[in-house]
Amino acid sequence: MSTRRTTLSGHTFEFPSLVELMAKATPARSGDVLAGCAAESAAERVAAQTVLADLPLATFLEEQVVGYEEDDVTRLILDTHDAAAFAPVASLTVGDFRDRLLAWAAAGDEAAISGLARGLTPEMVAAVSKLMRNADLVAVGRRTRVVTGLRSTLGLPGRLASRLQPNHPTDDPVGVTASIVDGLLQGSGDAVIGINPATDSPARTVALLELVDAVIRRYDIPTQSCVLAHVTTTLRALEQGAPVDLVFQSVAGTQAANRGFGVTLDLLAQARAGALELGRGTVGRNVTYFETGQGSALSADAHRGIGGRPVDQQTLECRAYAVARHFEPLLVNTVVGFIGPEYLYDGKQVVRAGLEDHFCGKLLGLPMGVDVCYTNHAEVDADDTDSLMLLLGAAGCSFLIAVPGSDDVMLHYQSLSFSDVLTARQVLGLRPAPEFEEWLARMDLLDDGGRVRDLAPDAPTARALLAAAAR
Amino acid sequence: MSTLPGRSGDNGPDPWAVLRGATRARVALGRAGDGLPTARELEFRLAHAVARDAVHTALDPEVVRAGLDGLPVVEVHSAAADRAEYLQRPDLGRRLAPGWSLPRPEADVAIVLADGLSPRAVHEHGAALTTALLDRLADWSVGPVVLAAQARVALGDEIGAALGARVVLVLIGERPGLSAADSLGIYLTWAPRPGRTDSERNCVSNVRPPHGLGYAEAADLVLRLLEGARELGASGVALKDEGPSLPSESGHRSPPGIPAGADPRTG
To answer: Which of A65, A158, B97, B147 gives 20 to 30 Å between its CA and that of A404?
Structure first.
């Protein structure tokens, strides 16, 4: 490991390791300050970016941020690296790679960008993102194509799907159903109807799975359900023959952090195999769903790399994507703004992190969505989340999470609302997933212009769905 | 323009009332184009504003002293200089700023009133809850009430150790939500000393009469936990069967992206 240095404006900056170089090149955020790895001045940050720009991409295949021997995520990354996919950019530096991506994006060459995924490591992608401005992240993200499917097809050009998140503080079936109906009537739910259960009880998980499955079957909705219980709970539900569409798990970028989540790669493989065996897909076979978020490793005190040095939270986030992509997910989303101001302090940091996560996940081959959200103790409000939502829509984000009226009454934070997603679609000319759009039309929920109707309560569809909620 | 009738018609023929009656979630809000109708938008904005104000209100010692009716109060400050630093550096909120001194009464119980993420909760419920606790602690010696500014739960470990207390009770403002900005939580830690972990604490959450737990009810729960901890010589998960252990975010309700053990509300 060699010290890298540069002299800018007469001052020499030294970066003794790749871990420190990556951290100091990261745009400012509170989590890296908390971890003690952030650049100590604005000039030091640019110096690190300058050094990083000259680093050959191939460096990341030889020099690690988190050790190969002690971390199974690093082993997964390097052992599954696809040299043929890497070949088109193998001779580039990080800075050249940025320029190349921007050129491909401007030319609309989706194949060139999207074909790289298996040849890129999370560290390469994190590195190039650190050199990019927000608009760069949008421009390249928009031209990175990742299409997945189970009973709806996600990631197609010109589409923006949403996860309908009908959480309830006690998992009350009527309460959950009311939120599902509210979301469906506003054109949400094409990515998934996904519930965070209030308890991790296997019986409750099965009951919720059966409830959503019944709604989906009764109205023949081309979407999938998910109860976001721990993977071990989903395994038990599978054993009991529950209607499991998707295996969910929160994952992080180090083996130690995943241990904190109670997850191993073997467990994930086992659960995925169980869900695949059920054969519940109609248009595809992607049966996993992962959530991630910058700061999760640090909050578990599992954020250290080579030499015990703290790794920056954005690089660790990208490593979580390597875990996710190994299991060919239908959906992956970062939860940006939930974890608190000690990781992302204000609207500027949240917007930046959301765009980075989307870009990096997609470039690595993930069907990337975002939970655009905030808590009341962060310097973030709905104006900030509006901005991020519209930027993500422009960036070709696969799906956004939406809850009734932006207020998640179980997890106690604010996400987007169902009507926010309609706004993003309207402003940017985006449409729901094709199968779901056909269903909305069949249910008479769309007007002649394809817009989700402002429903009068006595409309036949509204009456039918409301009656379902009443049961 | 909203196509929905007003929310007052819940008893009338309004079919959306079915949805609204089924959940506390903000369903059936109606739309103005693809946005929210103005009235709904302002309701939401007000809820957020109240929560924000609760976070950013400064702890006012005089408000608490007035409610404690002449009881001795010692004021301390964490190493977090101001609110912005407090919010970004939870590590600083867990230790005392240099220069603050505490008496050493070697009492059984130390009571710490901590602003946490809602100083407003301390203003509204801190003194009354402390009084309810003192009423039930006849069996125990109690040190002076410590009022801690820019404080996290774990600051109680250092304070309890400095006071020589056998157990510390930290009464702390919980993270404001849209529906409740004045919840107080109580964290009990046996044999407090710096380095204690969340799994070594027990918690009684959501003290905010009349909507949440009442003072007497909460104090009764704490007394039972105290007696259990004394018998066991420990608090935390070992005390689990005797009372509630750390709820919500610390365990199976882990919100997205947060592993067990982190407590984003107050930690």
So the answer is: A158
B161-179 confidence digits (pLDDT tens): 999 999 999 999 999 999 8
Give me the pLDDT at residue B263, please: 40
* Chain A contact probe: residue of B3, B7, B20, B26 with most A CBs at under 10 A: B26
Interface residue A369 vs chain B (CB under 8 A): no
Give the CATH number of the domain where residue A60 resides: 1.10.220.70
pLDDT, one tens digit per residue, over B255-264 is 333 333 334 3
Please indicate, yes or no, whether residues A332 and A411 belong to a single structural domain of this protein: yes
For residue B69, is it within any domain?
yes
The answer to whether residue A115 sits within a structural domain is: yes
List chain A residues with CB under 8 Å of B179. 409
CATH number at residue A211: 3.20.20.70
**What pLDDT score does B7 carry?**
42
Interchain contact A407–B (C-beta under 8 A) = yes
pLDDT at B19 over 90: no
DSSP β-bridge partners for residue A414: A374, A407
Q: Does A42 touch chain B (CB under 8 A)?
A: no
Count of domains observed in chain B:
1
Contact list in A for residue B47 (CB cut-off 8 A) is: 407
For residues A43 and A177, membership in a common domain is answered with: no
- Does residue A226 belong to any structural domain of this protein? yes
| Chain A residue with minimum CA distance to B4 | A456
The residues near A279 (Cβ < 8 Å, ≥ 6 apart) are none
Query: What is the per-residue pLDDT for B158?
Result: 97
Identify the domain containing residue B122 by its residue range.
56-250
In this prediction, residue A471 carries a pLDDT of: 60
Q: Does B260 touch chain A (CB under 8 A)?
A: yes
Identify the domain containing residue A157 by its residue range: 148-442
Binding residues of A: 163-165, 196-197, 249, 291, 299, 371, 410
Q: Is A300 on the interface with B (CB under 8 A)?
A: yes
Q: B5 in a domain, yes or no?
A: no
**Interchain contact A198–B (C-beta under 8 A):** yes
Encoded tokens for A88: 């088109």
Residues A171 and A96 in one domain: no
Please determine, for residue B8, whether its predicted confidence score (pLDDT) is greater than 80: no
Calculate how close chain A gets to B112, using CA atoms only, in Å.
22
Q: Does B253 touch chain A (CB under 8 A)?
A: yes
* Ligand-binding site membership of B64 (annotated): no
At residue A402, φ and ψ (nearest 5 deg) are -140, 140
Rounded alpha-carbon distances, angstroms, from residue A404 to A168, A333, A368, A398, B12: 11, 19, 22, 20, 23
Asked whether the beta carbons of A343 and A379 are under 8 A apart, the reply is no
Which residues are CB-neighbours of A141 under 8 A, at least 6 positions away? A355, A358, A359, A362, A363, A395, A396, A397
* φ, ψ dihedrals at A11, nearest 5°: -110, 135
- Specify the pLDDT at position B168: 98
Q: In terms of domains, do A161 and A124 share one?
A: no
Could you give the percent of chain B with pLDDT greater than 70? Answer: 85
Convert the pLDDT of each residue in B118-129 to its tens digit.
999 999 999 999
Residue B257: inside a domain, yes or no? no
Chain B positions touching A261 (Cβ under 8 A) are 259-260
Across the range B24-52, mean pLDDT stands at: 95
Does residue A240 fall inside a structural domain?
A: yes
| Contact flag B26-A404 (C-beta cutoff 8 Å) | yes
Greatest alpha-carbon span in chain B: 66
Binding-site residues from annotation of A for adenosylcob(III)alamin: 197, 249, 299, 410
- CB of A292 less than 8 A from some CB of B: yes
Please identify every stretch of chain A with a pLDDT value under 50, giving residue numbers as ranges.
none
Final residue belonging to a domain, choices A90, A117, A142: A142
Note whether B257 contacts A292, CB cutoff 8 Å. yes
Residues A106 and A233 in one domain: no
**Which residues of B are less than 8 Å from A292 in CB distance?**
257
In this predicted structure, what is the pLDDT of residue A441?
A: 96
pLDDT of residue A469: 62
Same domain, A294 and A361: yes
Question: How many CB atoms sit inside 10 A of residue A396's CB?
Answer: 27
Q: What is the mean pLDDT of chain B?
A: 86
Would you say residue B38 has pLDDT above 50? yes
B153 is in an annotated binding site: yes
Please state the domain count of chain A.
2
Distance CA A179, CA B21 (A): 11
- Within 10 Å of residue B98's Cβ, how many Cβ atoms? 6
- Together in a domain, A160 and A291: yes
